[in-house]
């Protein structure tokens, strides 16, 4: 075989392999989730400047956010796990929710309506937050050590595990 044929064969191999490698580049190393929502009064008016405190129950990690002019807030890049949310605003009853769960690569909605405070009181919310976000679509796959040990991989290359992910 001549060197020209070898170069052409190499070029063809690169052109075939390049599209196959592109899904590897598109994979995300995301290890966090997001909480977002809107804080309103019982009448539906947005609560501007309300304080939302999110605390991870397992690690103690804490994030404090204030609502904007529309009563909206967003807390990106939160470590996954169960959270306690505490909501306070001047002239309103504070609220606490310990059923909030941040999932890997997901967005958890936390929409709250606050009551006017006649006297200082704390309301503990025992309902769980909505876990489905219709505005964002993500696909997340977790590969643990047991799967890596038990699945037959031809080359034992970790990049072969990408073929197991959906999408």
Describe the structure.
The chain is α/β, with parallel strands linked by helices and 167 residues long. Helices cover 18% and strands 34% of the residues.
Count the beta strands: 9
- Overall radius of gyration: 24 Å
**Which descriptor suits the 3D outline?**
elongated
Distance N to C terminus: 41 Å
Mean pLDDT: 81
Q: Which percent range describes the beta-strand content? A: 25-35%
The major sheet is characterized as: 5 strands, mixed
Strand order in the largest sheet: 3-2-5-6-9
Low-confidence stretches: none
Structural class: alpha/beta
What topology does this entry show?
Blueprint: H1 3-26, E1 32-41, E2 51-56, E3 62-66, E4 72-79, E5 81-88, E6 94-102, E7 107-109, E8 112-114, E9 122-125, H2 145-150
What is this entry, summarized?
The protein is α/β, with parallel strands linked by helices and 167 residues long. The protein is 18% helix and 34% strand. The two termini are 41 Å apart.
Give me some keywords for this one.
167 residues, 34% strand, 5-stranded mixed β-sheet, alpha/beta, 4-stranded mixed β-sheet, 9 strands
